[in-house]
Every structure is written in structure tokens, then in C-alpha cells.
Design brief:
The protein has about 500 residues and is α/β, with parallel strands linked by helices. The protein folds into 2 domains: about 55-280, 3-Layer(aba) Sandwich (Rossmann fold), CATH 3.40.50.300; about 290-500, P-loop containing nucleotide triphosphate hydrolases (Rossmann fold, 3-Layer(aba) Sandwich), CATH 3.40.50.300. Helices cover about 35% and strands about 15% of the residues. The protein has helices at about 85-95, 100-110, 125-140, 155-170, 185-195, 205-210, 230-235, 240-245, 265-270, 305-315, 325-340, 355-365, 400-405, 425-435, 445-450, 455-475, 495-500; strands at about 65-70, 115-120, 150, 175-180, 200, 225, 255-260, 275-280, 290-300, 320-325, 345, 370-375, 390, 415-420, 440. It has an 8-stranded parallel sheet with strand order 1-8-2-7-6-3-5-4, sandwiched between helices. Helix 3 (about 125-140) crosses helix 4 (about 155-170) and helix 6 packs antiparallel against helix 17 (about 495-500). The radius of gyration is 23 Å and the shape is globular. Residues about 1-10, about 10-75, about 480-495 and about 495-503 have low confidence and may be disordered. It comes from Cladosporium halotolerans. Belongs to the DEAD box helicase family. DDX47/RRP3 subfamily. InterPro entries: DDX47/Rrp3_DEADc, DEAD/DEAH_box_helicase_dom, DEAD_box_RNA_helicase, Helicase_ATP-bd, Helicase_C-like, P-loop_NTPase, RNA-helicase_DEAD-box_CS, RNA_helicase_DEAD_Q_motif. Keywords: ATP-binding, Helicase, Hydrolase, Nucleotide-binding, Nucleus, Ribosome biogenesis, RNA-binding. This is ATP-dependent rRNA helicase rrp3.
């Protein structure tokens, strides 16, 4: 057996087609001829570059890197075939990774060869292991503290990445430190003082530590990864990333992973990567996995709560994530469902960090069957066995839609995504269908069966209104950790607020 099998790392040794009007059927839906009020229609999302998210420029490689085509389905390769050492192959087997996913199959040989890499793949495709495994193998060959840095857009994603690093590197004793906003900096500084091998951070808090934590430096860094890079730029982290890149060593390996490629992201790659190889396993910027069933429900706005409860009744016993557009709506829906006896918990950007992690853990472990969330939960989170994603409010753009529905049908499993569309959502729904390149089917319902829930929902709505009033009065009174929101996050500067991610 090769000697690296038993080797341990030591910290001390080296220190979406259009909505057809014929779908408006008998169950009291808006009349076919009734035009949507202009004032009620949502404005098209504008990212500052294009008037529509569906018009994002697809950047060509201008000789800066080579493109790697989508992998052939012929001849399944194992992790060992891709060049991983035996100890990491064993870790993959232990975690249930039977064979490499397409993004892993294409990117691992490139990353293991030491080249800079741009990985483009849809959500839920196994991107974390695609960059974690090459970093761990390189760390095994030349152990040192502060070997790798992973930058993520949200706190929850940062914790998730850290957990996967420690799981994949458990046989070689890998240590990670997580630097995110909303948490005390002192324990984080102590963790950095222990010289971890891998640092996983959100940009704002990382820059805080680089500027204020004595003795913390990344001058010896060997690997840099920017995960969900398009989201990093959407959250206006660009200036902070520029400052971070200026203090990192020029001689390093850099990997950038994203679901989409646009002009802003291309500018970042030119600044941070050297002659990168591009691995693209997505046929479209808005591709969803094949085993995801996507439907919509076209209903009058005033019946949204009733249809929501009816849908959850249809999927009784299954886990579900309900996405809302605002923090208040997430809290209200959670109160509403609790009043109806459903096990629901909210997750949004105004909860403090411990409450957010607690909500995620309760949902992950089955303590709660319904998670009501804003788009803080739309990106990157890997929650096993989510059976249903419900878009109670449509997202502002097609890209966010793809990430929301990507919370289900992960790792080869099947899943269902249903979007509630009202008379005010027609334009944005047409754009989503156009971006997906297909027409979604309507979810079959019977109005009489749905309206059976009307009385109970009306009573629960009144309870939810009272709970919301109590919650807001508690906030005005200065109470912390009260109510369903878990209290306000601690006040901080601009970086802290950005790390919280708007709900």
C-alpha cells in the first residue's frame, strides 16, 4: 500500500415559451381578455448591463483559455481514473460518491495538472467536490497551513463548503476555518491562530480579518477558489474582491466556478486567472437537470394562500422549500402554516446567524418539513431529500429561478418545482419560460377541492397577522432573538450588511 494512505496532515509540522391564455380555465381565473394592469406588472430585472436578464452576453474566449466540451457519456470513469490518490478515493466512497459527475469528470484532470480553471455548470452538479478534491491532493503532497482559500457569496454556503472539505479530508486530518459576517470576530481570529489548512470566507469578513487580525496573512497561499462567482458580483463584492486579490500571491492556482458566464464575470477572470481552461457542461445558461419536473399554477392573486395550503396537502409527508420575495412574507407564511399545524420554519437575511444555521439544521435533519425562505437559500445550499420547491412569489429574474428550483432533484434524485403565477406575474413568467427554452405544463387542480381549505386558511391568516404585529412590536421595543425572525442581526458596517445578503 502506498505510504500516503496513512499520512496525516499536521498543523504543527509545517504550521422560461409564453403563458398561453387558453390556460385560464373555469376555476375563477382571470378572464382571457382582461389585460394585466401596467402598474401591477413587475419591472424587468436590470443587472446594470442589460435591460433583460435573458439578454446576458455570452462571453467568447479570446485566446485567454481553451474550451473543454461536454463529456461523452461513453465509458464511465472512476475517481481513481481521473488521478485521485487512494485516500481521497476512499473518502469519496465513504461519502457515497459512486462516480464522478460531469463537472468533476471534466475539471479534475485539469485542476490536478495545476492549470487555472473556469468551471461552468448548473446548480446541484457537484461543483464543491470538483474544486475541493484537487486542493486536498495538492495539500497532501505539500502540507502547509493557510494552503487554500475559498470565497463564497453567502454565510450558509461557506459553512457547507467547510463541512465538505472536512468530510473529504477526514482521512488526512484537514482543518478548516470559516470567516463570515454576523458572528464574533474573536473566535474566528483564534481559529486563524491555529493555522488551519483551508480558509472558507465571505468577502467582507475576510477583508476585515486581513486588515485587523494581527498575524493573519495569505502571502503563502497556494490555491484560491471563487465559488458562485456570478453571485459574488451580483452582490457588488467587486471592489472588495479587488482589495483581496491585491494581497494574494501572484504565483498561485486559481479556480472560478459559476452557473453562468457574463461580461462582469469575464472581467474578473481576466484579473484573477492566468490562461485558464474553461470547462462547460451546461448547454444553456438557464439549464435545469433532466429529472426535475417543473409546473406552474395560474390563479387569482387573492387565492394564493389557499392554493398554497392545497398544494402542500397534495404533497403531504414530503419536504418542501417555499420561496418568497420578501422577509415579511417569509415570516407571515411560516406563521400561517404553523397555525394550520404544519411544521414550518423561516429562513431570511434579517435573522441572526445562529438562528439561520439553526433553521437550516432543523430542516436538514427532518425536525421541520417545510422551509419558508427568501433568496438567501436559493444559491448553492445542498439540502438532501428536498421533494418539492414552491415559488410562492416568482423570482425577479430567470437566473434566480434556476437556482431556486435547483434546491431539489439533486445528485441524481427526482424532484418537483411548482410556481404560483397570478395575473400580475404574466410578463416575468413569460421571460422565465423563454430563458428555459420550453413551455411549462400547468399543475392540475380542481377549484372545488382547493376551496375546501378556505375557511381554515382564513382563520390562520388572522393568527398570522397577530403574530406579525407582535413580532414587529418586539423589534421596535428592542428585543433580541424574539419571534419567528430570530431577532435582528447585529449592526455592522457595509461589509457586514452585504454578507447578510438581502432577503
Amino acid at each position: 500500500m502506498p505510504p500516503y494512505k496513512k499520512r496525516k496532515l499536521s498543523n504543527e509540522a509545517t504550521e422560461p415559451a409564453s403563458l398561453q391564455k387558453k390556460k385560464a380555465t373555469k376555476d375563477s381565473r382571470p378572464a382571457k381578455t382582461a389585460p394585466t394592469p401596467k402598474a401591477a406588472q413587475p419591472e424587468p430585472a436590470d443587472d446594470g448591463e442589460n435591460s433583460s436578464d435573458d439578454a446576458e452576453e455570452q462571453v467568447e474566449d479570446e485566446g485567454a483559455g481553451e474550451d473543454v466540451a461536454e463529456a461523452d457519456a461513453e465509458g464511465e470513469k472512476t475517481f481513481a481514473d481521473l488521478g485521485l490518490t487512494e485516500s481521497l478515493c476512499d473518502a469519496c466512497t465513504t461519502l457515497g460518491f459512486k462516480k464522478p459527475t460531469p463537472i468533476q469528470r471534466e475539471s479534475l484532470p485539469v485542476a490536478l495538472s495545476g492549470k487555472d480553471l473556469i468551471g461552468l455548470a448548473e446548480t446541484g452538479s457537484g461543483k464543491t467536490a470538483a474544486f475541493a478534491l484537487p486542493m486536498l491532493q495538492a495539500l497532501l503532497d505539500k502540507p502547509q497551513p493557510l494552503f487554500g482559500l475559498v470565497i463564497a457569496p453567502t454565510r450558509e454556503l461557506a459553512y457547507q463548503i467547510s463541512q465538505q472539505f472536512e468530510a473529504l479530508g477526514s482521512l488526512i486530518n484537514v482543518k478548516c476555518a470559516v470567516l463570515v459576517g454576523g458572528m464574533d470576530m474573536v473566535p474566528q481570529a483564534i481559529a486563524l491562530g491555529k493555522r488551519p489548512h483551508i480558509v472558507v470566507a465571505t468577502p467582507g469578513r475576510l477583508l476585515d480579518h486581513l486588515e485587523n487580525t494581527k498575524g493573519f496573512s495569505l502571502r503563502q497561499l497556494k490555491y484560491l477558489v471563487m465559488d458562485e462567482a456570478d453571485r459574488l458580483l451580483d452582490l457588488d463584492f467587486g471592489p472588495i474582491l479587488d482589495k483581496i486579490l491585491r494581497v494574494l500571491p501572484f504565483e498561485r492556482h486559481t479556480m472560478l466556478f459559476s452557473a453562468t458566464m457574463n461580461t462582469k464575470l469575464d472581467n474578473l477572470t481576466r484579473a484573477a486567472l492566468r490562461n485558464p481552461t474553461r470547462v462547460n457542461i451546461s448547454s444553456s445558461s438557464y439549464q435545469t437537470v433532466k429529472n426535475l419536473v417543473q409546473n406552474y399554477l395560474f390563479i387569482p392573486h387573492k387565492y394564493k394562500d389557499i392554493y398554497l395550503v392545497s398544494l402542500l396537502h397534495s404533497f403531504a409527508g414530503q419536504t418542501a422549500i417555499i420561496f418568497t420575495r420578501t422577509v415579511n412574507e417569509a415570516a407571515r407564511i411560516a406563521f400561517l402554516l404553523r397555525a394550520l399545524g404544519r411544521s414550518a420554519i423561516p429562513l431570511h437575511g434579517q435573522m441572526n446567524q445562529s438562528a439561520r444555521l439553526g433553521a437550516l439544521n432543523k430542516f436538514r435533519t427532518g425536525g421541520k418539513e417545510i422551509l419558508v425562505a427568501t433568496d438567501v437559500a436559493a444559491r448553492g445550499l445542498d439540502i438532501p431529500s428536498v421533494d418539492l420547491v414552491l415559488n410562492f412569489d416568482l423570482p425577479p429574474d430567470s437566473k434566480t429561478y434556476v437556482h431556486r428550483v435547483g434546491r431539489t432533484a439533486r445528485a441524481g434524485k427526482s424532484g418537483v418545482a411548482i410556481s404560483i403565477v397570478t395575473q400580475y406575474d404574466i410578463e416575468i413568467f413569460q421571460r422565465i419560460e423563454k430563458a428555459l427554452g420550453k413551455k411549462l405544463e400547468e399543475f392540475a387542480t380542481e377549484r372545488d377541492e382547493v376551496m375546501v381549505f378556505a375557511q381554515r386558511v382564513g382563520e390562520a391568516q388572522r393568527v398570522a397577522v397577530q403574530e406579525m404585529k407582535a413580532m414587529h412590536e418586539g423589534k421596535k421595543g428592542g428585543s433580541k432573538g424574539k419571534g419567528i425572525s430570530g431577532g435582528r442581526a447585529k449592526k455592522g458596517g457595509r461589509r457586514e450588511n452585504m454578507d447578510a445578503e438581502e432577503g
